Automatic annotation (TrEMBL):
This is WDR86 protein. The lineage of its organism: Eukaryota, Metazoa, Chordata, Craniata, Vertebrata. Gene3D superfamilies: YVTN repeat-like/Quinoprotein amine dehydrogenase. WD repeats lie at residues 11-43, 93-132, 169-192, 193-234, 235-274, 315-347. InterPro entries: WD40/YVTN_repeat-like_dom_sf (IPR015943), WD40_PAC1 (IPR020472), WD40_repeat_CS (IPR019775), WD40_repeat_dom_sf (IPR036322), WD40_rpt (IPR001680), WDR86-like (IPR044715). It comes from Jacana jacana. Keywords: Repeat, WD repeat. Signal peptide: none annotated. Pfam families: WD40.
Length: 391
């Protein structure tokens, strides 16, 4: 397609900007939530619209797609659940008193964060609010969820006797500059993580390593121990708000309003790569098949070699900011505030990348083999020296 190749398909059904794009777990469908107050369901097999969800009284801020159900939240203060096959609205979750800007589905729970300064937990099936998390001094922007079984030792769990009913925890990031960790069963705040001096825009959780990463308008990323609440590291090199995060193999990628993405080694805090070329804020990130994809306020998506930082491809065609990207079956999907969903063929760069990775692994193998032979030779020389010295 060349450096500015056109999309293989442009979907123009929405009458307003697309704020979010969600891929189903089985990869068969995509869901878009729009400024026009509707959500649309798309097949990844043919990129055709197969569902139109109408009912919200204001714009949709965020959406989430399961295999059989879709969820949308809106500036009309509600969340809706939809049947994927029929398009029927199955449930309306009411209770928030301002814009609902984020939802998260985990197990039988539906979590939501709002400009009304609260997060809430709902029963997915019973259309009922289970818990309200109140304590932030400003709006809740981002959510994460985990179970204490994933992070707490047995003796630590015994200390939390009152939480034995449910070991689920919710993490919330807010414009009040704090991150809070809550017990889902009681609504009690377990930890308040203090350190940011700006709004917390994004969270990413690494439960097996007991770590949480938060990005902020204070230009920093901070790492926290989610059991003790201790701040572990501060990543400080960005010159603008940190908008999005992606964690892959102990490498942390951060997209910023300073028009760059940076890659950090989580274990040391070292910044090992900076990805330039964006002409506006980096709004979204996705690491796929050894390639780093970005979406930007300059209306372009880009593909980078994560190791070298070399720009491999630019996807041009959108007119406004790209708000979200998804990847499935060597197709890149980009959703923009221009109201279009665009589909791009990435088979070429995926193939080139596979060849590159194969060469790198082969070179590493030869280097490792040389190292092994060198160690064997040195061991033999050492033994000979010892024998000559009578040791």
């Amino acid at each position: 397609m060349g450096n500015g190749g056109s999309a293989v398909k442009v979907c123009t059904d929405h009458q307003g900007g697309i704020n979010w794009l969600s891929l189903s777990p089985d990869g068969q469908r995509l869901l878009t939530g729009s400024e026009d107050g509707t959500a649309r369901l798309w097949s990844t097999a043919d990129s055709q619209c197969h569902g139109h969800f109408q009912g919200h009284e204001s714009y949709i801020t965020f959406c989430h797609l399961e295999n059989e159900a879709a969820f949308t939240c809106s500036a009309d203060h509600t969340i809706r659940k939809w049947d994927v096959m029929t398009g029927q609205c199955l449930a309306i979750y009411r209770g928030h008193t301002s814009i609902v800007n984020r939802i998260l589905v985990a197990k039988d729970y539906l979590f939501s964060g709002s400009y009304d300064r609260t997060a809430r937990c709902w029963s997915v099936d019973k259309e009922k609010q289970i818990q309200e998390f109140r304590g932030h001094r400003n709006c809740v922007l981002t959510l994460a969820h985990y179970s204490s079984r994933d992070v707490l030792e047995e003796e630590e769990e015994e200390e939390e006797e009152e939480e034995k009913v449910s070991r689920d925890l919710l993490v919330t990031g807010s414009t009040d500059c704090t991150v809070k960790v809550w017990w889902v069963s009681s609504g009690r705040c377990y930890q308040t993580l203090l350190g940011h001096t700006g709004a917390v825009l994004c969270l990413i959780l690494d439960a097996p390593n007991r770590e949480l990463f938060s990005g902020s308008t204070d230009y920093t990323i901070r790492t926290w121990n989610i059991v003790t609440g201790e701040q572990l590291k501060v990543f400080k090199e960005h010159q603008g708000s940190v908008i999005c995060l992606e964690l892959v193999n102990r490498h942390l990628y951060s997209g910023s309003a300073d028009r760059t993405v940076k890659c950090w080694l989580v274990d040391t805090g070292e910044r090992i790569q900076t990805y330039k070329a964006h002409k506006h804020s980096v709004s979204t990130l996705k690491y796929h098949a050894g390639i780093l994809f970005t979406g930007s306020g300059d209306a372009c998506a880009r593909a980078f070699n994560p190791k070298s930082g070399v720009l491999q491809k630019i996807f041009r065609g959108h007119k406004f900011i790209i708000n979200c990207i998804q990847i499935h079956n060597e197709l890149l999907y980009t959703a923009s505030h221009d109201g279009t969903l665009r589909v791009w063929d990435i088979r070429g760069i995926c193939k080139r990348n596979k060849r590159r990775l194969k060469k790198e692994r082969s070179a590493q193998g030869r280097s490792s083999q040389k190292g092994s032979l060198s160690r064997l030779f040195n061991n033999k020389v050492g033994c000979m020296v010892q024998q000559e010295n009578g040791e």
